[in-house]
Amino acid sequence: VSVEMGLAKIKHHGSVEIAFTNGNKKELEYDKLILATGTEPLNVPDFPFDHDRILSSNDILQLNKIPTSLVIVGGGVIGCEFACIFSALGSDVTVVEAMSRLLPLPSVDEDCSKLLLKEMKKRKITVLCDTIVKSSELREDLLSIHLDVSPFTDNKDPKKLKTNVILAQKMAVCIGRSALSKNLGLETIGLKTSSQGWIDVNTRMETGIKGIYAVGDSLGPQKVMLAHVASHEGIIAAENAMGQNSIMNYNVIPGAIFTMPEIGTVGLSEAEAIKKGSEIESFAVNFRSLGKAQAIDEISGFAKMIIDKKTRKILGVHLIGAHATDLIAEATLAVQKGLTAEDMAHTIHAHPTLAEIMGELSLKASGKAIHG
Q1: Rounded Cα–Cα distance for residues 47 and 59 (Å)
Q2: Which residues contact 204 (CB under 8 A, 6 or more apart)?
Q3: Per residue of the chain (372 residues), what is the pLDDT tens digit?
Q4: Cis omega (within 30 of 0) for bond into 41
């Protein structure tokens, strides 16, 4: 595999030109092309990145010093992960979220959001839901950040703000991603994007132009913007570029959120299952019931299972707790293969391990709870 470090642009069908930092250029010919250019942090005009005080999620990884105070705009996955990290490093952290809960994603069960909020408060992280940042300005050595009640919240009766202004040394904006599809020369081969720059593909990861494939975040939110999904899309695209007929399936995708504690999700949340009209049952078991959780002093958290009441099939599993992002793999296989709670209950889980949470949960869902 040859690797070229430079800026690539399509010259015409079958040819890509690479521009190097030293000014040199090189032309490469191709039979098949896979576009995997990803995204960049969304820049908000009301408080644009200055890469010093107002930071993107990229900038925040380049800091030389830990800020004494940090406001994070956006209580989604990236915002909550950074909130936990910088709180642990000693920053005074405030999260501002426009919706009524942290992690306001359909795939994340609301009970996980509630426990995460509780755990973040234990860490002295201030969380302001139903709130937006309107603007910011530098006053002496601190940012003056102006707040307002969110017009986007799903809360029908949001509370009035206790304060309209908060001060912080730095502000990180974590509220979305922008496509990196401009200046690639897509127009030279007739490949059109959406108004926001997202690339459309079929189930084979092929664009509207034969032999041109696209994978990853450049496909936009109509797909699933996760690294492990992009990796699998790459496999599908590569197989098809080599003459196979592989299909990308988005039906069962695990989510991994690296907060403190971690969150792992797969399948339907309880709200999603109810919305679909499914007749369901849900069951939960606390991590504190596990010997391993007690031994490593990581007792906060729970596992929740949603099952179809008639077929007993597992529709979704949601974990928040120690190593939840690792533990979700077993549940992903269960949902993928259409297993029932009883199938999992008859699978022996080693003791003492955190993996026993799935055994305890499935036993409870089967009406045979032991420790849960």
Answers
A1: 15
A2: 213, 236, 237, 240, 245, 246, 247, 248
A3: 899 999 999 999 999 999 999 999 999 999 999 999 999 999 999 999 999 999 999 999 999 999 999 999 999 999 999 999 999 999 999 999 999 999 999 999 999 999 999 999 999 999 999 999 999 999 989 999 999 999 999 999 999 999 999 999 999 999 999 999 999 999 999 999 999 999 999 999 999 999 999 999 999 999 999 999 999 999 999 999 999 999 999 999 999 999 999 999 999 999 999 999 989 999 999 999 999 999 999 999 999 999 999 999 999 999 999 999 999 999 999 999 999 999 999 999 999 999 999 999 999 999 999 987
A4: no
Look up the pTM and report it: 0.94
Nearest-Å Rg of the Cα atoms of the chain is: 23
Domains of the chain, earliest start first: 1-30 (no CATH), 54-173 (3.50.50.60), 181-250 (3.50.50.60), 255-365 (3.30.390.30)
Q: Which of 13, 232, 351, 371 is catalytic?
A: 351
349 has catalytic annotation: no
